[in-house]
Fold this protein.
Amino acid sequence: MKPIFAVLFLSLASSSCLAYSKPKKNEGPTTAEGPAATDLPAFDYEFGRPIEEGEKTYSWYRKTHADEAAKRLGFDAAAIADGMDTWHWWVGVDNPDFWRDVAKLSGSHLNKTNLRLDVLRMLLTTPRAERFKKLGLINDPDCVAATKPDQFGLTLDRMKDGTLTWDPEKFGYSSGVIGLQIFKNEKFDSKKWSLAQYMDDPKSVEAPYKIGMSCAFCHIGFNPLKSPSDPAEPKWENLTSAIGNQYLREGLIFGQDVPASSFIYQYVSTQEPGTSETSRFPMDSINNPTNINSIFRLADRLKLAKEERITVEQKTLIESMYKNAGVPLDSPIGALGGTEAEPTLKVPHILTDGSDSMGVLTASVRVYVNEGMMHKEWYPSWPLNPFHITDSLKRRFMPKEFDIIHEHRKDPNSPWMQTERRMPNMATFLETYDSFPLADAEGGKAFLSTDKALLKRGKIVFADNCASCHSGKTPEGLTNNPAERKEAWRKLVLSDDFLKNNYLSDDQRHPATELGTNVQRAEGTNAQAGSTWGQMSSQTYKDMRAVPMKIMDFNANGEALPLYNPLSGKNDIDWTGPSAFYRTPTLVGIWATAPFLHNNALGDYKADPSLENRIARYGDAMTKMLWPEKRLGIKSIKVTSEDSSFPELFPEMLKTIKFLDGLTLKLLYLPKGMPVNLLMNLNPKHFPELVEAYIKGVLNGEPRHKFKSFINSRRDAGMASMLQRMLELNTVPDFIEDRGHTFGSKLSDEDKKALIEYVKYF
């Protein structure tokens, strides 16, 4: 998981410790790290009810999984368990301070957006019983709703007495939401504390707690083999750690108080469930949320890694990282090769666009930075740094590299280095996830066809049309002869062990033009040289992106045509951008993970983790995949539900516009039915140009001194001119969300139905 909300909506809106005593009836440290706190009030974490007889806890979940995986794979059970602790509870040391920083920034009275990036506030204002329904959050089975406020007046979930088995100084206490951990705030002063004051302005007073975020916040999800009877009160047996939370409403988590008439609400509410927008803070001026990766058959995936060129500096970096983490240089998580002068790294492609191309270790630690680790060093790399907006203006919103090669790994005890050392065991833990066979689900066999002829037909259809990309296995001795290739693929897919240890993806990058899918995610720039993650992508990736690519749409007959223009209603946008790629997603467990495509845009969504709903969603998405005429098409474009006002975000930038006689931002809005991404795919540096376009539209050739007299009567003309300029300046003018991947559209209906039934076995 990565930080949640656009800096665009925070940046310009605003230009005593607790001593620690041993938790009752739980293991934990007796002293706190850091400054002495002898003169401060004692802090006893207040647990909830005791564990009931027969109740399964995280300790059970951890041991059961580790022991089973160790027996099945021959791994060290202790390493698996330690990796699970990291995945679930580790927040990268200092990310609670990041979330405190953004809470103070967004909580200012000068913030006119009503957007509050305050995790503590969200926990206090969203009751446990409502979190899943409203926000798709997953409650911790080891916690219960508080029956009364704690010693500081905060009504937060409490861990059941007896469930804490880890070091809370290192991992925190569970907040009640999996992946959000509570830490004591070393700046808290009980004499100054006021809950009312905090809720009114969180920067005015320090709360007793800080909240940190771990990987589990996004990646833990409901176990498709054992659905919870109540999604708001799951048991550990109802959860699984690596499937991804396909119900998470990331966009709404901090936007519940934003009125629908604000454009900000339109932005956050149109984000698809189960996606994460990983470039909101290291901004690339592209609204590109992507589905949260499931992590299946990691060991099989690593076998598909390919060598990519890296720089000599990157080679030195990898050698240092591997030494710090105790990883051999030939490790399958990213084996070094090549020569001293021309090194290579054999890597899998982690992110959807294949940009994370410096091996699993680098990719994993980078995620913690994107959750807020080392935020003081991270802020300056943002194109739009709300903590130093003057610097961003001077840079004209150009990014900087987050410099791990020369700067951020120098301290052996830095959060980066500490996290780096935890990654090998976390990788071991993640290697333990295989799949979730529908046949093993409670009642699952009823949804599986046993018609051997139908399933064989489905296998043949898959071999002929899908396997070349969606198989981690390849026939031996594959020739270039079409007939021989077809026969070899059929023989492989029809073999009894085809699905065993098959990642069901080649895990390679494919051109977006080949796939035909929406290119916003693939056009992201954060891994380019000079950008935030530039040091964490290979030279091969950078060179691939450097080639221009004309982005096209396709009609029902598969013929290429320009992109759809929402202002004209025609396919008349002729657009060329950097080459764009998507890696092939795995099909493991696809029956349980609809909607489809990288943006979760294909298929209807329903917030229901039951087996019946999963199968219904799978059937709907597969039908639309294979019968494209049943898709939403232009109706999948994210549009405003009503006229939506621009928030007053740009006081500094407005000062740079010389002619604003009579113009206020209250005159500017995005009309109902307009694409959200007309605005969200714009670089902030273009805002003055939008204002100028509005002015010119109002004037329609009249002298500028007449603007004030026309400002109301010609408002529509001004808006039309501004919208057209938004389109012209758009970073990625690709608006249809569910287009592309129509490879099965020309199959017969019988073949399509057979394929749908066979894929349920994945």
Notes: The two ends are 26 Å apart (CA to CA).
